[in-house]
Write a structure and sequence with these properties.
- The complex is a heterodimer.
- Chain A is α+β, with helices and mostly antiparallel strands.
- Chain A contains two helices and eleven strands, in the order αβββββββββββα.
- Helix content of chain A is about 25%, strand content about 40%.
- The longest helix of chain A is centred in the last third of the chain and has 24 residues.
- In chain B, helix 3 crosses helix 13, helix 12 runs parallel beside helix 13 and helix 17 crosses helix 19.
- Classes of the chains: A alpha+beta, B alpha+beta.
- At the A-B interface, strand 3, strand 7 and strand 10 of A face helix 2, helix 14 and strand 22 of B.
C-alpha cells in the first residue's frame, strides 16, 4: 500500500514537474529606459542605445537571474524629439545547457507601440522564433515602447543589441554586430547539426 | 512596476488559430495590451482652505445655439448674405444671451447659496460671483484641493462640479475653480541665465532708433513695416484713425514708456489715445508680473496704427481673470481688433469649463465683427515643455491656448537671417525660417553640452502644431499641409519630477483632425528681434510671438480702416479674418500678388516649413498691402 502511495506521489510530482515544464515560471516584466549613450557629445544629435536584459530596470531595480524555461517580456522606452530613422537589433548570447552550447534566448515576438499600446508602429511577429531579431523604422517625435518577449534557453541566457537613431543604413558597428550575431547563429546551427 | 501579465497575451503558446487571428486582426491585437507605465494623477495635497475666497464665472448656455454657430460662419463668409452684418453687444445679448428673467433667476440662486454676485455681463452669458471654497462645495458638490504635478502646484476641483438642478438647464459650467492654466507671457529675450549668463550679447542701444533700417535684433515697428510691405498702406493715408485697438493683458504697465517709444520714432499720436480698463473680478487686482508684455503690446500695436485709439484691458492673472478680461472687452464692444499675448498649453484646461466659456466669448467676438488674435506660444512644437522641461520629462507635441481656438487668429513666429553675437563667437542663421532654437544646437552643444541645449533652446520657437482639443475648422479643410495629430504623444516624466521612478502624465490622441496653428507668422526670434522701451530704458534683443499678436492687431486695424462702413456694418469692422485669408491662399497660393510669403526652410523644432501650409509657419509671412486688398 505504501509502495502504491509512493508511486502515486511520484506520479503526481512528475505530473507537476511536467506541467511546470510546459508553463515555465513567468518573469515579472521589466521596463528599461533607453538612454542615449552619445549624450553630450558635441555635434552628435542622434544616438546609440544599448539594448540588453542585464542590469537595472527603469526604477533602478536589479533584473533577477533568469533560468532556463523562463519567459520574459522586456519593454524599452524610447523618446525621440525629431523625425528619425531607427534601426534595432538584438541577439542572444550562447549558454551551456548540460554539455551543449545553445542560444541563451529564443525570441518569440516584438512590437513597437506608443505608451498606451493603442497605436502600433510595427507588427507583432507571433510566429517569429529566432535568436536574433531586428527591424528598421522611421519614427516621428514621440515616446515609444519597444516590447520584446521570449524564452530563456539555458541558465545564464541573455541578449544584447543596439537601437540606433539613425542610420537608415546600418553603421559599421551595427553591421558588425549583426554579422557577428548571424555568424554565431550559423555556428550554433552547424554544431547542433553535427551533434544530431 | 506595471500590472500587465504575460499570460494576458500568452505570446509563447499561440495556437494556429490565435496566430491566424493575430494576422487577420492586424493592429487590433495589441489593443489588449495594458499601459506599460501607469498613468499618474496629480498628487493630491489635500483640501484647500474652506474659507479661501475665489471669484468665479458662471457661463450660461447661449439661446439659439445652433443659430449662433451658423451666424459665426456666415458673417465671415463673403458668399453669404450675412457677410459682415455684425451685431452690437446689445443685439448679441438679445438674440443669444439668456433672458433677463433667467439671468435674474440664476443670480438669485447664487445669492441664496451665500455667493456675492459682482457682475452680470452685458452678453447675458456670464455671471461673475464670489464665494468661499466651502460654499463651492455646498453648491457645486466638489471640493477644491491643492495639487502638484510635474513640478507645478495648482488648485483644482477634486471632481467635476455638478450644476445644481435649479440652474442646470441654462448653465454651461463654472470657470475659475482651478488655477492650473495660468497664462504665461510670450515675450522674452534669448536664454541668458544660469550657465548661459552672459552668453547672448544684447544689442547696445542708447535710445529707440528714430528711423527704419536697423539691424535685426534692434527693430522697431518701422523696420517691420518695411519688411512686410506695410508702407504703401501708410502712403494711402491709413493710420488706424477712427478705429480702436484692444489689448487683453494680465499685467499693469507704465503709459509713459509707450508714449516715449512712439515719440522716439517721431510718430504723431493723440496724447490721450489710451484708456486703461482695469478688470478686477478675480482674486486681487492686476499685478506687475509681465509688465514688459503689456508695454510691448501697446508699443507695437499702437506704433503700427498710430491714428487708432487704444483700450487696454488689464485683468488679474488668476482664476477666471483671463476669461473676464476678454468678456469685458467684448461687452464694451468698443474695440475693432483685440489681441492677447498670454497663453498656456491647451491641455492644461482639461476638465476646466473655462475653455468652453472662453469659446463662447470668442463666438461673441465673431458676430460682433471683432478679430481676436493670440500669440501661438514661444516653445516651438513643444508648448508644454516650457512648463515641464526636457529631459526631466519627454517632449510632447502640444499647442497653446487661446491660439488653439479656431475662432482666434493664431500668430506664429519666424526668424529672419541674422548673425547673433555670443560669448564664444557668432551664430549665423542664413534663412528666413520658422523660429526654432535648433539652429543654436551646434553652438550650445559645443560650448555648453547637449543637456543645456535641451533645457534652454529646445523649448524655444514659434508655437505651432495640431490641437487635440479643438476640431479642424472649415477654413482649413482641403488644405495641403494641414496635419492630424501625431502618434506616440505621452508625457513621461522621470525621477527629477516624480521624486522617484517614472510616470506617464498625459497621453494625447493620435491622428486627431484638430485645428492647425499658427495661421500666419512674422519675425519673432529674439536674435532677429525688436527694441522695447521699458522702465525708461530701450533694450534690443526682445522677441516672442508676443510681438506678432499685437503687430497683427495694429496691422488689421489699419486694414479695417480701409473697410467702408455700411448700414449693416456701421463701424466698418473686419470680422473674423481667417475664412477670407485661407480662401485667398487657396486661390492664390504664393503667386505674385498673394498676401502670403512662403517660408520653405527650417522648422519649429519639429514641424517643417514647406511650399504649402505648415504648422511651423502657417500660411507663411504676410505682405500687408496685398492682405489689405484681400480683406478689405
Amino acid at each position: 500500500m505504501n509502495h502504491i502511495k509512493k508511486l502515486a506521489l511520484a506520479a503526481a510530482v512528475a505530473l507537476l514537474a511536467a506541467s511546470g515544464a510546459q508553463a515555465a515560471p513567468v518573469e515579472e516584466d521589466n521596463v528599461f529606459l533607453l538612454v542615449n549613450s552619445t549624450e553630450n557629445v558635441p555635434g552628435v544629435f542622434t544616438g546609440t542605445y544599448a539594448v540588453d536584459s542585464v542590469g537595472a530596470d527603469i526604477n533602478g531595480n536589479a533584473v533577477g537571474p533568469r533560468v532556463a524555461g523562463d519567459t520574459f517580456v522586456d519593454d524599452y522606452l524610447l523618446e525621440i524629439n525629431d523625425a528619425q530613422d531607427v534601426s534595432f537589433f538584438v541577439a542572444a548570447n550562447s549558454a551551456k545547457s548540460g554539455r551543449k552550447v545553445v542560444p541563451g534566448v529564443t525570441f518569440s515576438g516584438f512590437v513597437l507601440t506608443d505608451l498606451t499600446g493603442s497605436t502600433v508602429f510595427a507588427p507583432i511577429d507571433f510566429d517569429f522564433e529566432s535568436h536574433s531579431i531586428g527591424a528598421d523604422w522611421t519614427l516621428q517625435s514621440g515616446t515609444y515602447d519597444l516590447e520584446l518577449w521570449g524564452t530563456i534557453g539555458a541558465n545564464g541566457g541573455n541578449y544584447s543589441g543596439e537601437l540606433d537613431t539613425p542610420p537608415a543604413v546600418p553603421e559599421p558597428t551595427g553591421l558588425a554586430l549583426m554579422m557577428a550575431g548571424l555568424g554565431a547563429m550559423g555556428m550554433l546551427a552547424r554544431r547542433r547539426k553535427n551533434l544530431s | 512596476m506595471r500590472n500587465k501579465k504575460l499570460g494576458a497575451r500568452a505570446p509563447l503558446a499561440f495556437s494556429a488559430l490565435s496566430l491566424a487571428a493575430a494576422f487577420v486582426l492586424g493592429a487590433a491585437a495589441p489593443q489588449a495590451m495594458a499601459v506599460i507605465i501607469p498613468k499618474v494623477a496629480p498628487k493630491d495635497l489635500g483640501v484647500a482652505s474652506p474659507t479661501q475666497v475665489r471669484t468665479l464665472s458662471l457661463g450660461l448656455t447661449p439661446r439659439n445655439g445652433a443659430a449662433l454657430d451658423a451666424l459665426v460662419e456666415s458673417v465671415a463668409d463673403p458668399k453669404s448674405p450675412n457677410f459682415r452684418k455684425f451685431l452690437s453687444s446689445a443685439q448679441f445679448a438679445a438674440q443669444f444671451g439668456q433672458t433677463p428673467e433667467a439671468v435674474a433667476q440664476v443670480a438669485a440662486f447664487l445669492q441664496s447659496q451665500g455667493f456675492t454676485v459682482t457682475n452680470v455681463h452685458a452678453s447675458n452669458l456670464l455671471i461673475t460671483f464670489k464665494g468661499t471654497n466651502a460654499q463651492i462645495a455646498a453648491t457645486f458638490g466638489t471640493t477644491i484641493h491643492n495639487y502638484t504635478q510635474a513640478g507645478s502646484a495648482f488648485q483644482a476641483p477634486a471632481t467635476a462640479a455638478v450644476m445644481p438642478a435649479q440652474i442646470a438647464a441654462v448653465s454651461v459650467g463654472v470657470g475659475g475653480m482651478g488655477t492650473r492654466a495660468r497664462p504665461m507671457s510670450y515675450a522674452h529675450t534669448a536664454p541668458n541665465a544660469g550657465a548661459l549668463a552672459g552668453d547672448t550679447v544684447q544689442p547696445a542701444l542708447a535710445a529707440v532708433p528714430h528711423d527704419a533700417g536697423n539691424p535685426v535684433g534692434s527693430w522697431t515697428v518701422k523696420d517691420l513695416a518695411a519688411k512686410y510691405n506695410v508702407n504703401p498702406l501708410y502712403a494711402k493715408g491709413l493710420t488706424g484713425a477712427g478705429k480702436t485697438i484692444g489689448i487683453a493683458t494680465l499685467a499693469t504697465y507704465d503709459q509713459a514708456d509707450v508714449y516715449a517709444y512712439w515719440a522716439a520714432l517721431g510718430l504723431s499720436v493723440d496724447p490721450n489715445r489710451i484708456t486703461d480698463v482695469i478688470v478686477d473680478p478675480a482674486d486681487g487686482a492686476p499685478g506687475t508680473d509681465g509688465a514688459e508684455e503689456t508695454t510691448l503690446d501697446v508699443e507695437q500695436s499702437g506704433g503700427l496704427a498710430p491714428g487708432a485709439k487704444m483700450r487696454v484691458y488689464i485683468g488679474p492673472n488668476a482664476g477666471n481673470g483671463f476669461l473676464e478680461t476678454f468678456a469685458t472687452a467684448l461687452d464694451e464692444d468698443m474695440v475693432d481688433v483685440l489681441s492677447a499675448s498670454w497663453g498656456s498649453p491647451e491641455i492644461f484646461y482639461d476638465g476646466d469649463p473655462t475653455l468652453a466659456l472662453m469659446h463662447n466669448v470668442f463666438k461673441q467676438a465673431a458676430v460682433q465683427g471683432i478679430p481676436v488674435i493670440a500669440a501661438s506660444g514661444d516653445s516651438g512644437a513643444y508648448d508644454i515643455n516650457r512648463n515641464v522641461p526636457y529631459p526631466d520629462c519627454s517632449t510632447l507635441l502640444t499647442v497653446d491656448y487661446p491660439a488653439a481656438d479656431p475662432y482666434v487668429l493664431a500668430a506664429g513666429g519666424t526668424s529672419l537671417p541674422n548673425v547673433s553675437p555670443h560669448k564664444h563667437g557668432t551664430v549665423t542663421q542664413p534663412y528666413e525660417r520658422p523660429w526654432g532654437g535648433d539652429y543654436m544646437k551646434d553652438y550650445i552643444t559645443t560650448w555648453y553640452g547637449l543637456g543645456l541645449y535641451y533645457t534652454s533652446y529646445l523649448p524655444e520657437g514659434g508655437g505651432g502644431g495640431v490641437s487635440v482639443r479643438f476640431a479642424r475648422p472649415s477654413y482649413q479643410n482641403g488644405l495641403t499641409g494641414v496635419q492630424n495629430s501625431a502618434s506616440a504623444q505621452s508625457l513621461l516624466c522621470g525621477p527629477t519630477i516624480t521624486g522617484g521612478g517614472y510616470a506617464d502624465y498625459w497621453d494625447l490622441p493620435a491622428n486627431a483632425a484638430g485645428r492647425n496653428l499658427p495661421d500666419v507668422a512674422l519675425n519673432a526670434d529674439p536674435a532677429s528681434g525688436y527694441v522695447v522701451l521699458f522702465g525708461g530704458v530701450a533694450q534690443g534683443g526682445w522677441g516672442g510671438t508676443s510681438f506678432v499678436a499685437p503687430q497683427l492687431n495694429g496691422l488689421l486695424t489699419l486694414i479695417s480702416e480701409d473697410i467702408t462702413p455700411t448700414a449693416s456694418n456701421p463701424k466698418g469692422r473686419m470680422g473674423r479674418p481667417m475664412p477670407k485669408m485661407y480662401a485667398a491662399f487657396k486661390a492664390q497660393g504664393y503667386a505674385a500678388g498673394s498676401p502670403f510669403l512662403p517660408i520653405t526652410v527650417g522648422d519649429n523644432e519639429f514641424y517643417k516649413a514647406g511650399p504649402n501650409y505648415n504648422p511651423a509657419s502657417g500660411l507663411g509671412s504676410v505682405d500687408f498691402t496685398a492682405l489689405d486688398a484681400a480683406l478689405k
